[in-house]
Amino acid sequence: MNNIFNVGLLLSAMRLATPLLLAALGGLFSERSGVINIALEGLMLAGAFTAAAVTWYAGSPWVGLASAVLAGAAIAGIHALACIRYRADQVVSGTAINILLTGVPALLSGAFFLSTGSTPQVPKEQLMPYTPIVIAAVLVPLTYYVLYYTPFGLRLRAVGENPEAADAAGVSVNGMRYAAVLISGALAGIGGAYLSIGQSSLFTRNMSAGRGFIALAALIFGKWRPVQTMLACLLFGFTEAVAIQLQGVHLFGGEEIPTQFVQIIPYVLTIVVLAGFIGTSRAPRALGIAYQKEK
Amino acid sequence: MKLKVLLVAVLVCSLLLAGTSCRQEIRADEKGKVRVGIVFDIGGKDDRSFNAAAYDGVKCAETGRHPDGKPCDKPSLGIMLRDVEPGNPTSIEPAMRAFAERGYDLIIGVGFAQAPIMEIVAKDYPNINFAIVDGASTLPNVASLVFKEHEGSYLVGMIAAKESKTGVLGFIGGMDIGLIHRFAVGYEEGAKAARPDAQVIVNYVGVTDGAWNNPGKGKELALAQIGKGADVIFTAAGNSGLGAFDAVEQAGKDAQGHATHFVIGVDSNQNGVKPGFVLTSMVKRVDNAVYQIVSDVVNKKFKGGFHTYGVESDGVGYAIDQFNQSLIQPDVIQQAEEAKRKIISGDIKVTDAMLK
């Protein structure tokens, strides 16, 4: 036991939590403005592919990261257009984007690298193993400040809670929502970039492996608040790190603990929170409802 | 109205694009040639590992050249080749049926997961030859190309234990399934045979097919093993294994410029993926097996049933080349060769985890 809980475990937890946190903060902006964003998974894939492909060509992870931000925002733009301009069902639009992004990177990868499975490996010198972690860490207080202490944040929360009132006060509801969804794409794009050029060195198909949905769970678990969401992401990362350390370790008289037991803890907790056992997790009131100005 | 049209358009586009990777134009313009269709595993043909080896085999049969353009040591068989990389498990069966409907002469499925699907499809097309890599079928028109991975893993386990400084070895498998247990058990037996006090840490990336495409998790597992003292890590995890390559590279080199931690590649020769950090590769000559079955069909000698490849036919083994010959002591290679002879003669019996 004593060789399991060490500094390595904490570092591992931080690395595992970083992509979740970036995507979850992205989801926070979108959802606080009233737009459901289950497209986080697809947005991460967009960022991951773009970062790996551009870094490979440009030789600089910064260029790759910037491109991932743009790619995430561009794909989120589709979601925004469908949900805000055309008032489409936000869950359906998000699902469509997730399906779209299982195919598009493979298609582009096949066109550029003659391989639909994965991109070439980026050399170690061109990777960015720490920067996204720092970015994620800085983004938490920044998001907190923006959300609660700036006019932008006040308007963002207002259009998510009561768009009619915000509109009456002269706030452009749809303008705020466009901005929020684009920000969410940019942040999820950074999260994806961390997967491909931070944590590993290449893009492989569907490499986000459900992290976008886990980020969404963390967002709900964190009650749509930045600090709580960060704690939720850290918990999710920590349990996965523990599961990794426990794999194959024999405890309690030689019995091997199925690591799946450890890994389900965060999800069970999320359900418990949603069921209202540990406080209540209340979604922004206007979440999922497109805004139409009264004539 | 507008909204509905847009939604439908977005959905249709996304489904089409998601499907593009599995929908290749199959032209019937090359008449008279033996037509071969191959359906890859989820990893895709460029996983630098298992699928890449299968692709290499059919590419040599088609053009006489490797996918990178270098000539093969085997002649072109003048076949017409079409391949499909399924985007998800549900598109495997339609891909196989599409080949069968067009009357292909040989349809190759790559990966254990395709065996049950091929069983269904092959029953409907008894006059078409099928081959499954890593899977088993009793149908007369299906050739099962299987490998004694445990024997090759035994040999790299010996090399790993001899070259390890700490005596702690790592194993990272992709999916937690019988086929991969075979690698793990053989590796552990080889390691213990060479060094009875050797300790092997066995980890798996996951329990779904996503486990082959999660290099981030592969790297975390490798770093955790390194944290527990492992200095040689054998991967059998498709693209996820590449994360372990990154992990040993990150662990760095000592003052003399030698790597402190190593990986052992799998299926294809991966020695050149991170030169200096790859101790050796447990090569599984899927390329030879696939080439052979294509050649059987071309020469009208196709036989169903099991085609087993072990160390005796160099179907499995370890790779020594310019990238790793300085990493392994000559006497270690001698001992591995000795063990190989004993496996062939039956003096060493390696446990096959799939028979347990």
Distance from N terminus to C terminus of chain B (CA atoms, Å) equals 61 Å
- Order of adjacent strands in the largest pleated sheet of chain A: 1-2
Strand-and-helix sequence of chain B, N→C?
Answer: HEHEHEHEEHEHEHEHEEHEEH
Largest sheet of chain A: 2 strands, antiparallel
Percentage of residues in helical conformation of chain B: 25-40%
The CATH topology of the largest domain in chain B comes to: Rossmann fold
Order of helices and strands of chain A: HHHHHHHHHHEEH
Backbone shape of chain A:
globular
Helix content of chain A: 55-70%
Strand arrangement in the largest pleated sheet of chain B: 2-1-3-4-5-11
Structural class call of chain B reads: alpha/beta
Instruction: Flag low-confidence runs of chain B.
Output: 19-26
Distance between the termini of chain A: 66 Å
List the uncertain runs of chain A.
none
Q: Which CATH class of the largest domain in chain B applies here?
A: Alpha Beta
Number of domains of chain A: 1
* Structural domain tally of chain B: 2
Could you tell me which chain pair has the largest interface and how many residues each side has?
A: A-B, 52 and 53 residues
